[in-house]
Amino acid sequence: MDTFVSAYDEKIRPLMDKIDQARSLLSWSNDGITFPNVVVVGDQSSGKSTLLESLSLVELPKGSGIVTRCPLVLRLRKASVRRLYRLNGNEKIELDERKTNILNYIEEETKKLAGENKNIVKDLIELQVNDPNVRDLTVVDLPGIARNPIADQPKDIHKQTTDLIRHLIRQEGSVILCVFPANVDIATVESFTIAREVDPTGIRTIGVITKSDLASNHDTLIQQLLMDRPDVFHLKLGFIAVRNRSTEEEISLEDARKREKEFFSQHPASRMTGHCLGIDALINRLADLYSDRVKETFPKMRNDIQTKLKEVRDQLSKFPPDLASASARLAKYYELTDWYVENIIKERFESSNDGQHTTERKSGKTGEKMCFSKITDDDDDDDNAVFDAISNDDQAVQDMIISIYAYWKLLIKRFIDYTALSIRAGCVFDICPGIRERLRQIPIEQPDFVDAYLAEDTFIRAKREQLHHTKERLEKVDAILGGGRIAIDDNDTFASGTMSIENSPAMTLDKLEENLASTNVIENVNPSGFVPNRNIQQSVPRVAQAASISSTFDFNFQNISKRT
After folding, report:
1. Based on CB atoms within 10 Å of each CB, which residue in 272, 309, 450, 506 is the most buried?
2. Between the CA of residue 307 and those of 111, 255, 415, what are the distances in Å?
3. What are residue 76's DSSP bridge partners?
4. What is the CA radius of gyration of the chain?
């Protein structure tokens, strides 16, 4: 590996490490976050497993039929000492290759996930390979496409395999590695058909021609590698031909690589397409593509995390206050009791005009004005007859009688009105406190009964807990990815993730490690993959509380009253 490639990997590696930390907390299936991957697809017996052995330097299950029944994720990381780890969420368990047969281990793990039959499942087996002879890659091996069920395979085996392939290659951060043998017509390879569905322009698909020693025509192989004719398959990432060991050959990976080099050194294609031949050419091509994917997907991952985190927080803010403890439910009950008495019972007793009697409301006049105003045509007929009997010459007496009569009439009406007001006031100041005190006695007499009415619905509580767990995981990932501070542009520079990549102020690659080291990363993840719970305070607007209380508490109060 030349000096430039080594330096480049050292600068991109910190980002890969952060993405690996994020992977351990996020689910590829449920969280919808785009990860950079190399997804290997192909038909059965296309040579996928032996190809992956050459890439990862790990012996994998091989054979006829469906050997891979669940996605196998291989994180290849260049390191000074070889180590092999089993990854399970945030757990990282080292496997001793001297004591553990890795081939058998993978087969047993597959049975745990997929069962003894031949079903296909989406659950992952993740291994991390640290080795001085690998390049930094994350490779996903998928089950080979099976067209017809054999023996105890499920009848819909073809649909199971193709659905799983579509599910994983649909992610924009994935490089699609389509594998097919040299002795098969590429037009009949279904993996290319599926790849074209999700990548019609071929900008993230690379073709790998295996079993090159079985090619019937060297010219056809060369033309496909060169893609210089309109009647051959074209991909923007091109094709690479390899020759790996077969399942029957019992030779080491090192010997198989030496034999491949000798084979292609004498092959006619080496004169024109030497850069497209051999496993080393494929590894270098994939490493460059993977590094590009890391740079492209890192800012997008950061933005996607922030968007999802905002959505989760918005959903949590719409939930009612959490009444998980008995003390919280009791406090809420007393709050509801006070609200019920003040806003519902008193509202029905108290007058909306602060004690203004009905006579004044109807006339629009105060008592003094009514006492000294003349009786109009709207007054009682009996009153008019009395007034008409008085002599017109005795105007002073008439005015006095009118005023006295009007005052007397108003006094009687006000007495009647204030009697009703007194009764209502008695209810407000005497009865309402009694109702309040009676309601406050219910939790003391029947605490379980009140708890039952204020306990949160099981579905709502489960949903709340799920959102809290998701929020904690996303906050953890948000901190790991740098809190929006790191992004990469196309010129290998780093800038703020909140700005556009092209126009953001740049930081040179030489300062990458210093910038990444300053990023805060939360430690102490618990075994379930979540950060420790934080104190989360929910605040609900009082208007929303009033709407909820007025619609629900009246019914609950009636039920409680009946039972007490």
Report:
1. 450
2. 37, 50, 67
3. 129, 137
4. 40
